[in-house]
Amino acid sequence: MRRIPGVKPLPHAGPTRRSIERDVDDELLFHLQMRIEDLMRDGHSRDDAENIARREYGDMSAARSELTSIDRRAARRTNWREWFGSLGQDVRFGARGLRSRPGFTLTVLITLALGIGANAAIFSVVDAVLLRPLPFAQPSSLVHLWETFQSKVDNRSEASFPDYLDWRARNKVFSDMAGYHGGGFLLGGAQPMTVGAGKTTANFFDVLGVRAMIGRTFAPNEDAPGMPRVVVLSYGFWQQQFAGDRAIVGRQITLDGAQATVIGVLPASFIFGRLGGAQIWSPIDRTAQQRTNRGNHWLNVVARFKPGVTQAMAAQDMSAIMRDLAKEYPQSNAGRDGQVVSLQDEFVGTVRPILRLLYCAVIVVLLVACVNVANLLLIRGADRQQEIAVRVALGAGTGRLVRQLLTESLLLAAGGGLLGLGVAKLGVRSLVGLMPAQQIRGLPALSTVGLDPRVVTYALLISLCAGLGFGIVPALRLAKPGIYDSLKNAARGTIGGASRLRDGLVVGEIALTVVLMSGALLFGRSLMRLLAVDPGFRPEHVITTTVVLPSVNYRDTPKQVDFFHRLTDRLHALPGVEAVGLVSRMPLDFGNSLGFAIVGQPAPDPGRYPSASYRQANTEYFHAMGIPLIRGRVFGNGDDVRSPSTAVVNHTLAEAYFVGQEAVGQRVVIGGDTTTIVGVVGDVPIGNIGDKVPPTLYLSSDKFPQTAMAVAVRTTAELDAGTRAIRQALSSLDPSAAVTRVTTMETLITESPSVFLRRFPLILVGAFAFTALLLAVVGIYGVVSYSVAQRKREMGIRMALGAEPRAVVALVMRHGGSMALGGIAVGVTGALLLGRFAERMLFGVRPSDPVTYVTVALVLAAVAVAATILPARRATRVDPALALRSE
Amino acid sequence: MDLLQGTLDVLVLKTLSWGPRHGYAVARWIKDTSDGTIAVEDRALYVSLHRLEERGWVESQWGLSENNRKAKYYQLTAAGRRQLQANASEFAAYAHAMFKILDTSEA
Questions:
Q1: Distance (Å, whole) CA A780 – CA A863
Q2: Is residue A105 part of a domain?
Q3: Which of the residues A303, A425, A597, B76 could staple to B80 if both were Cys, CB 3.0 to 4.6 A apart?
Q4: Closest CA to A53 of A74, A79, A31, A81
């Protein structure tokens, strides 16, 4: 405060609780004394004067407390102002300090940017996929319904249409229920294209609580058989295909060769996870016959709870209905139950454990980064002991010093956080780039993932936490009162506890690194095991795509057969082509199954009919895919519409249903038609590689063709040339037909969920583990070199007394080695404890896999030795005389 | 005559505008200048002084009084001076409006 002119100031300390009270009392007393003296001068007696003065003053004790509280408030405010004022000073001071040590600062910033950036990137995905609510009205009350069968574990199927109708009519727990299934359309035009579709009951969008952005969604009864086709477009498709033209509503488009009317466009926010690729939505278009068959399961069902209904109540109600249906329709429903799954779980259930795991892994990376920075700060702090000792001597309090040091840490964290946002931006992009289109379609939230305000907030928050986290220990340690009892001592730079703390931190970061590396290796070995599984076919040199014909123009089977014959002929004529296979669904695609009866075997109980996956294939399919023929023959040119039905079965089916008998020659009844088994072929996966192969039955595509068939061409041609040739062949045959993406069989395997779901975490956890390893190396190197520098004198004396350089090297390496061993021991223990959480994501390796842990331990030990060699050699070059003199 | 709310603050600021003084001097000055018409409890005066200090319009310092006692001196800050000017003109406008109304009522 300015000196008041004309007043002789008295020394006065800053305000404290006690001093404020004293000041108020002093001021009051002064007032009373002055008044009493004045009054006595005017002739009053002392007693009189005192009474008058008190009366004039008013309630003394009330005044005291009132004045004290005003002054306290004022003092608090002043303190804050000063706190902030000196904070600015700390920031400037800290920034200057950091600038003056660019090497240290840069190391810390890069370390933090990696840790925080990776964290923000993974968080953005976790946030988009797991944390955001689904884009529907009250999404938490939406569920997905399934049928399950008792006979097989964890096996569920879509509902049959009659079952769906009964569920809808009989349940007491759902306010409404709707059905849908996926599909595709051939969109006609100058360039015909296949478009993903969702086909739904008329009330589908009402159940989800989604309104059309323009136009309308389906009206009741528009899903009845024979109604004119109306469609609703996704926002993206409308933008991309029709340039966002609002006049699209009411226009006609050509789907599968027939006209359809666009009645609306969905809002941009609408994405339905299980049909992420659906661009066109239409009412279900199955025939009346398909809608009355209880054995035909094709309808996915979503439902909305009535208010107050829980999942358990709903599951109970569904089971009750299914029990009744099993009694009423034993033939089709015996042994079937219902399942209720929340829609969120249905959409993200498979990726949730992976994302959780990745999030944990990335937190570990951040921890390692923080430990490293804490260590660097400790080391740097040791060099600053003199500076700090001087400041303590000049009267800086502990609190003030801690704050100054923390400010520096927070500056580093803020810088690291900002750089981290850049890292996160790149990270998110490559993260999404890593995922095959199929996966992104399944998790549509990924297409919009990025650095939104939530992610930025998150990054800043973890930066703050990190800054406090890595800053607090070194700050407290350095600012500890009593450490600098004498400046002379400080110059020696030996604080007993500090080196133990530094070593402990390095042990911790090695342990964390071990955990990450073990995880990465477990995934790596799982993937190797998985890819080593013989898929039963030879994927090399196979190019594949799906050909789609406009169904309206190809209603008759002979026309379909004829087209595909001409197509295979055309493809055969291309150079390098060895075989051209046709199949309704490729291996790795899930498909439908059918029930059958075996001629000559007793009729099974209801609900226990033999069942098999089925697909239609042509003669060359098995050859083209390299599926071995075990017995009998594959389809021939005679297996067509005119001849009696024939079937080829896989090895599993022959073993399962014809125990001890020859399968070839047996006859089975499928839907009333008798079919003769003519051959047995090897097993190929249906769905996931590595899963148990189900019994599979192939029918001749010449007899049961389809308008959409997958083509598998075994050829020596490269993918590009093959793609061009296939497209050319197709457009010359029929320009209204379209192909889906042309790709190699090997790519399909890589993109298949079972491979992807192991490769994806492998790549990321691997990257994290590598980062952690690098940081651990920096940590070991830093601490060992520092301790060598600190022990220069000791080394010098040892050398002077005749110690072999080798002994000095051993001394230093023992230091590094013991930290590494400690870290490895702790880390392996931790990894073994944590391993069981990842068990379900592994394949063919146990979480306690010894090879993994031995490898990790060896790698880390080797790395630790490497990181120690340089400082150890430096120790041997210490000149004894110089070292002694320097003290 | 009792004081209207807030007017005491203006009086205190005005008193200090002639130079720094301690609380007792401020009390004396207000009593003497108004010839005793304005009855202020000393307690209210000190509350006013401390409030003004909290707001930053007045600052204080301990010093020695004319009879060598330890006393707390107050002086106007720049912000306090501005506040006094603003309050004074506000008060004048208010008083002017009051007089106008009171004059017309009897007419």
A1: 9
A2: no
A3: B76
A4: A31
pTM (predicted TM-score): 0.74
Rounded Cα distance, A730 and A155, in Å: 39
| A-chain residues near B47 (CB < 8 A) | 63, 66-67, 70
Q: Which of A1, A31, A55 is the mutation pick for testing B, counting most B CBs within 10 A?
A: A31
A381 and A465 fall within a common domain: yes
Determine which of A195-209, A383-397, A667-681 has the lowest per-residue pLDDT on average.
A383-397
Chain B touched by A48 (CB under 8 Å): no
Instruction: Please judge whether B24 and A8 are an interchain contact, meaning their C-beta atoms are less than 8 angstroms apart.
Output: no
pLDDT, tens digit (0-9, with 9 covering 90-100), for B57-107: 999 888 888 888 889 999 999 999 998 998 888 888 888 888 888 887 554
Q: What is the CATH number of the domain that holds B55?
A: 1.10.10.10
Q: Is B57 on the interface with A (CB under 8 A)?
A: no
- Name the domain count of chain B: 1
Query: Residues A679, A791: one domain?
Result: no
ipTM greater than cut 0.95 = no
Contact between A580 and A543 under an 8 Å Cβ cutoff? The reply is no
Residues A181 and A293 in one domain: yes
Domain extent at residue A81? 17-98
| pLDDT 10s digits, A294-304 | 888 889 999 99
The count of structural domains within chain A is: 4
A169/A550 Cα distance (integer angstroms): 37
Cα(first)–Cα(last) distance of chain B, in Å? 26
Rg of the Cα atoms in chain B = 16
Q: Using CA coordinates, name the residue in chain A closest to B40.
A: A56
Residue A595 shares a structural domain with residue A708: yes
Q: Highest mean pLDDT range out of A446-460, A651-665, A828-842?
A: A651-665
Task: Evaluate whether residue B45 is within a structural domain.
Answer: yes
Whether residue A610 is found in the same domain as residue A563 = yes
CA atoms within 13 A on the CB side of A422: 9
Is B2 inside any structural domain? no
Whether chain A has a CB inside 8 Å of the CB on B46: the answer is: yes
Smallest CA–CA distance from A54 into chain B, residue:
B42
For tokens 């290796």, what's the residue? A521
